Amino acid sequence: MLSLCRVARHRAVLAVALRASPHAMLTPYVSVSSKFGARSRSTRHAWSWAHGSARTSPETHVTRVVTPTTTRHHEKTGTTNIHASTERSIVAIVVAPWHEESPAAKTRTEHDLLGELELPQHALYGIATARALENYQITGIPLHHFPELIIGLAYVKKASARANFRLGLLDANVARAIEQACDDLISSKQHHEHFAVDMIQGGAGTSTNMNANEVIANLGNLILSRGTYGSHQQAGSVTSGGNYEHETHADASIGGYEHINPNDHVNLCQSTNCAYPTAVKLAVVIKHRELVGSLEALIESLDGKAVEFESVIKMGRTQLQDAVPMTLGQEFKSFAHTLRKDLHFMKRNVSELYEVNLGGTAIGTKICAHEGFAELAVAELGLLTELPLTSPSDFIEASSSTGSFLLFSNIIRRVAVKVSKICNDLRLLASGPRCGFGEIKLPAMAPGSSIMPGKINPVIPEVVNQVCFQVMGTDHVIATASEAAQLQLNVFEPIIAYNLLNNLNLMRNGLDTLRVKCIDGIAADEKRCAELVNGSIGIVTNLLPVLGYKKATAVAKEALATGVPVSVVALQYLDDATVRKALDPKTMIR
């Protein structure tokens, strides 16, 4: 019997498999081998969970799971129970979509420097991706979680193919097939599930780049195997939208790389060290537009509340103590204004991401690239994306620098800091309902306590606070990863890319949640605001011009000690008309 922790480990492996391709039916191929060499064997089984162990039955289809484990084979039942020991643990998983139309699951074998691996026949990725799936079970978040990154990669590969064709380095048919494969990735998510590598990985993004190279090469080979392009095709063939039918006669086109090779053609004149950061920059540019839209919408909502509350007079506060009167509208206007400044800053500085080192190859010396490739590829990329992209003046510096990522992360952090402060204020202003500030009423979104009846908590500002904390914390991760660059490369770009793209997601969702479920529904408690103003000591400040600081202090001290209103105590020094005029809250607001 496995311990609970061991069962959890086995289930975690299956969970990784399912997350790697959530939209396709998955079944595992279990390869069992001894960590200490010598004996190894493979069996094909489907996972089921029974009696606390990972149990397999032999009637199923294939993906691939590589698991150094101990095994117990039952001759009578034909099943294999997989048990982990302290010396042997599950270390890797390779997953690919299994297509329901297949009468029997098939595999193919690919080779690399380290040997060979079996992959699912229909997997559009290749052995480099399979190695990464074995090595990097870190976040459980695959590349296809961020479609913008796949689109960025596809744009880079398409622009490169165009440039290489114009330079006479690629055959027209090969270039055209690569372009169409890229177009299908840009226009549709149909094949995105094959981008299954974990976002956080070693190798400075090599696994991501190779995942793209392999998928695009296989799609391109499928196109060439049928001799069809664009929309001029017969039924059942590759269509311009990415409707690839994996028929038996096309199986040899996947993984064979007969016409298009991932390295020699798709990656021609490139290195991961220039293609990957360029794709990440494009992904951030694409994705930041969503955040800009959400920020603009929140600012508009706050502006609307500023107008709605412009006549509601309340007390302003400094250091959580009474200060002087203001309007609730002014308070909300200040919220909108501070975010508008960040919006302008974000729009202005996104241009830092327009400098891309595509064509610099390994360390910026452009080794193995045609001398005209960098300029031509960046020009093509600019045309495709409609962005004013430029090459760096110093490719070697650009090869190791992540300064533009650091800057943009700082901008997102700045938004998070401001938004978190706004959420803090909303929670204070809504505190109560009877023993707090109680100046505003937030929409009631959920019962607030499992033990205190009738309690309603400010759950929306609370959750957005937490979003902001996460963004602020991971901005530090990005800064640390940026600092950790060594010599001519920063190998930690994957964690920068992951956190930057994830923070864009988090902030967009947080801003939308705050606007829709909180700001839009806020109401003012005008009666409570008036009570606090009239009972405040802070209004004594407006007596300074007529009483002077010393006498005004005496008024404040007596009012605070006796509980008598400031307006009454001030009559010891001034006539009633002067006091009324000086202490009219409307005269204190400009």
Describe this structure in words.
- The protein is α+β, with helices and mostly antiparallel strands and 590 residues long.
- It is 48% helix and 11% strand.
- The protein contains 18 helices and 13 strands.
- A 4-stranded antiparallel sheet has the order 3-4-7-6. Strands 2-1-5 form a 3-stranded mixed sheet, with no helix packed on it.
- A hairpin with a 2-residue loop joins strand 10 and strand 11 (321-327).
- Helix 8 (328-349) runs antiparallel to helix 11 (403-429).
- It is elongated and about 100 Å long.
- The relative contact order is 0.08.
Q: Low-confidence parts lasting 5 or more residues at pLDDT below 50?
A: 1-103, 231-250
The first-to-last residue Cα distance is: 76 Å
Strand coverage percent = 5-15%
> How many distinct beta strands?
13
Task: Give me the Rg, rounded.
Answer: 32 Å
Give me the secondary-structure category.
alpha+beta
Strand order of the largest sheet: 3-4-7-6
Taking all residues together, what is the mean pLDDT? 82
Number of helices: 18
Categorize the overall geometry: elongated
**Largest sheet, described in full?**
4 strands, antiparallel
Query: Roughly how much helix do the residues carry, as a percent range?
Result: 40-55%
